[in-house]
Amino acid sequence: MPLEDIRNERIKKLNRLHEAGFDSYPAQTARKQTIAELLKNFLKLARAKKNLVAAGRIIAKREHGGSVFLDLRDESGKIQAFFKKDTLGKSYQLFLDAVDIGDFLEVSGKLFKTKRGEPTIEASKWRMLAKSLRPLPEKWHGLQDVEERFRRRYLDILMNEEVRGRFIFRSRIIKTVREFFDREGFLEAETPILHPIPGGALARPFKTRHNALDIDLYLRIAPELYLKELLVGGFEKIYELGRSFRNEGIDVTHNPEFTMVEWYAAYWDENKMMSCVERAVSFFLKKLGLKNQIIFDGKTINFSKKFPRIKFTDLLKQYALIADYEKETRDTLVTKAHKLGVEVGPHEPKGKIADEIYKKICRPRLIDPVFVIHHPVDISPLAKKTAVDSSTVRRFQLIAGGLEIVNAFSELNDPLDQAKRFEEQEKIRQKGGFESHPPDKDFVEALEYGMPPAAGAAIGIDRLVMLLTDTHNIKEVVLFPTMRPK
Asked: What is the pLDDT, as a whole number, of residue 139?
């Protein structure tokens, strides 16, 4: 039957309930216990032979002559309900005529076990809590059009226990992340989502406008600059867990809005931060009940050993056959990028080209956790250089399973150097490099008041969830991923 015909039939049933004096969408329910609580105390409650109330969505319906068995489900679990014509009288026929799978029902009655030993509530009366006008999908899991699962995530969660469990686990991961930083003595902070200047990372921002102030604003691409201003203000260990937004392409590891935790510690360098990251990973795995060896995309990832360190340029040499990055010019690197199938924009600096080569050729081969260190300075405008005249910075990324999990560095706190870096980024920007970091005079001014030496890091929560749940598309771990409207 076409969907619209089913909907019209259900509206008729809704009207039938109204005619019988039922409020099909009441504000209150008599439920006092979840289904899980009823089942946990089943023997005691069944012996008491008192009327109890179960409430939930009907997910199955089986008729047997003058009786009907239903499966009711709430968030905590499932229980069978038994409807008998002899017991319910006139309301039994109304039940047959007006109640469908998908409806939310309140069932009052006594608990008993069937001959098969199934815990059951025998209905002495029933009440509609919410009449569903559309049928639940019968075989939602495995639909060929997987994008429909993301567009109608509520049905995906409802019909697919694996998906439901993944998002419950995601919530546990986020709680564990907060617990780690709280235990480490970090203070949780909240910084603006709306920024007058988009900064803190190299990314193209989303632009909006505030009518009352008559100014353009940008959704934050990172909380970094505000958090570092808090270091100037005297806080020494701070973190923020929340959403950031980047106006970039969508693929299996990128969604335009994403969740990350970013944290900063005064008087730390990148080496102390690496130790912190190792502690964090160990804590996450233990707290979440996972082993030090996990499976991701068919490969075993071993977290039990100390994470090795390897230079960014050494990876280019090993996997992309770029023997001496320092001797490469931008033009020679462009040629090598084309040979490797890496697209290059006319405005991109040498470091950006190298980074794109690294992402395509090198990073996918890094399965066991490894710290990639010493990235090019022209893609790291907020990080300290490894030496005064160096072309690399004191930066690292934790890679595992071919995914970038952590990005971190020793923070640049020299205001004059920072201003100069912003000027260099602006030159790239003027040539069309829209991901370049715009100058932020207010941030430079804050640095001029003095910021202690510090290290900062960020974990992409979505990618962390992907890694820990062996999931290979970011849309599978984001409840409502960004989608093109139908």
From this structure: 54
